[in-house]
Amino acid sequence: MSIATGSIRARLERSPCVSSAPCRIDLGGTIDMKTIYLPMACLSPCTFNIAIDLPTRVTLHPYREGMVKVSSRGFRDAEFPAHEAPFAHPLGLMFAVASFFNADGIHIKIDSSSPPRSALGGSSAAAVALVAAMAKAGGVSGRFSKDDMAITAHAIEEGVALVPCGLQDQLAAAHGGVNAWYWMQPGGSGICFRRQQVLTEEQMDAFEPCFLVAYCGIPHESKNINGKWMRHFISASDRNLWRYIITCTHNFIDALGKLDVERAAYWMNEELSARVKMTPDVLDEMGNRLVTLAVGTGCGARFTGAGGGGCLWAIGTPENILALKEKWTNALKLRKDACLLDAGIDRQGVSVDIS
What we know:
single chain; alpha+beta; Ribosomal Protein S5, domain 2; Alpha-Beta Plaits; 2 domains; eight-stranded mixed sheet; four-stranded antiparallel sheet; 12 helices; 41% helix
C-alpha cells in the first residue's frame, strides 16, 4: 500500500473525515494471546465480548504542512513533524497509525465516550477508528475489510507496546455486536480466529435489560496483571486454572446463546473465581464490593479487560439486574468519579463518514 505524501491532507481540505468505533465488555480475555491459545489449541480456546455503544470518535482535519497533531480528552495536545513522533508518547499509538498511512499535515481529534483507562478497550477502539478514517481519507478504504482494520490496528499497537497484545478488543471495535472469538493456528491468509455471532438482532433486544456496566472510579493498569497471567502460564503454575477458564467461557457462550442468563451468570462467576485465585489484585476494594452485591442478587459479575481498576459488568434476569442497579448505584457513591455507565449494545462496529 502506498499513499502519496500530502494526499490525505489534500482530501481533508475539502471536508473533515469522521469515524467511530465502539468499546467492549468481555469474558475469557488474555486467551487471545498466542502464548496461551496455541499451546491449548486442543481445547478450542475462545474469548467473548459485547461491543457497547460508548463510541470513540476520531475526526481528521487538515493542519500545517509537514506536521501531525493529536488531541484527546485527558491528554495534553501533542504535535510533531511527520514521521518523527516518539511512539513511546502517551499518544504514540495514534502517531504510529498516522505514520503507517504516510500522513502529513493533519490534526487527529479523539473524543471517547468512556472514562480514560477504564479497561473497556478504548485505545484499541481509537486505533481501529483511526485506521478506518485514514484509509478513507487516503482513498484506500477498499483494501480494508473490518477484519483488516482490526488486524492492522492490532499489529501497530502490539509493535508500539513492545509486549504481546490480544486481538479481541480491535475485533469488537471493528464488528460490533455480541461475539465469541475462537483462536487457532494462523492459516495461509494469516487469519488466526473464527467469529461466532452469539446473539441475533432480536436476541440482542431481549438481552439489553440483562446487563449492567459500572466504572469503579480509578483507572486500570493492564500490563501489570496481564504480565502476571502470562508469566504464570509460561511457568505452568496455574495451567489447570487456564483450562478451567476456557471451560467456563465455552459454557457461558452456550448459555447466553440460548438467553439462559441465570446459567450464564453462574459460569461468569466461575470464570471470575478462577481469575481471583490466580491474581487476587484483579479486583480492588470497590470491585470486591460490587461482585459481592451482584452474587447476592443472583447475578454474575466480572471485571473488564485485565481488571485492577476500570470497569465491572454484571449479567442477570431483568428483575435481578434492576435490583442490582440500585445496590451498585449506592455502593458507587462511596468513591469519587465511580458511576454506572449508560451502555447498550453497539450493532454496527466501526463506521466512517467523509463528504
